[in-house]
From TrEMBL:
Assigned protein family: Belongs to the short-chain dehydrogenases/reductases (SDR) family.
Gene Ontology molecular function terms on file: oxidoreductase activity, acting on CH-OH group of donors
Region (Disordered): 1-33, 223-252
Record-given protein name: NAD(P)-dependent dehydrogenase (Short-subunit alcohol dehydrogenase family)
Keywords: Oxidoreductase
Compositionally skewed regions (Basic and acidic residues) per UniProt: 8-28
Amino acid sequence: MAEVLDPPTREEPGLPGNEHELDPKPEWQPRYAGSGRLKGKVAIVTGGDSGIGRAVAVLFAREGADVAIMYLNEHEDAADTRKFVEAEGRRAICIPGDLGDRDFCFKAVQQVVDAFGKLDILINNAGEQHPDEKIEDITEQQLRRTFQSNIFSMFFMVQAAMPHLKKGAAIVNCTSETMYKGAPILLDYSATKGAITAFTRSLAKNLVEQGIRVNGVAPGPIWTPLNPSGGQPPEKMPEFGKKTPMGRPGQPNEVAPSFLFLACDDASYMTGQVLHPDGGNTTQS
C-alpha cells in the first residue's frame, strides 16, 4: 500500500515560488568558461528549477555534465532551466514530484538512469521553510512537512541512488547558515539543517570505503524565489541580506561554484566537509 503523505502546508501558498515572477531576477548565469571538470558525468539536482538549483544545473552543464532537474511543480521555471542546460550543449530531463515521497524518489532515480545510462553526482538541494515568530505557531502538519521535504527527502534520494553510484561518485547536500547561527523565526527549518549537517558528516564516514565522497554547502541569505514567496515575512524582505558583513544578499551563481568544487575531482581529498558561501555571516559572533 502506498504511503499517504501529508498535503503541502498552506500557510504560505506562494511557496516554493516561481523565479520568472521575481523582480529583480536572481543571477544564475555561470561567470566563467567551462574547463571540462564534469565531462561525461550525469548529475541529479533536486530543486533544480530555480534559484541555487538552476545555477548549479547550468554550471554543471557548462562543465560537461548531463543533468536531471527534479522539482515540485514549477513547470515553467524547470522548462527554462532545461533550455539553459541544453544551450550549454548537454542533455537535460525534468522530473516533477514530491521528494518527500520515497516511492517517487526511487522511480525518479531509475528514470534518470534509464535516460542517461548512469549516475555520478547527487545534489540534494530542494527544501522548504515557513517563518513563525512563536514555537506554538508551528503546526504539526508544518513540522512534518518541513522535515519530510528537507531531510527525509535526502535519505530517500541517497537510498535510491546508492545502487547506481560507483567509486568516485559525489553527493553534495545543501544545509544552511541557520544550522550554525540559529534563526529565531525558522525553528523547524533550522532543525532540519542541523540534521542535514549531521547526516552529511555521518554519511561521509559510512561511504568513504566505497570511494563515494559526501560534502555540504551552507549558504547564507541568497536571492532566490524561496524567501520573497513566503519563506520570510514580507516586512523583512527590504532588509534581506543587508546584515551580512558584505552588506547584501548573495546570488545563486555565487553559491553554485561551491557545489561544483565539491562534486568534481578538485575536491578528491575532501569528505564530510561544509563550505560557507554566506557573505561572512557565520564569522559574526
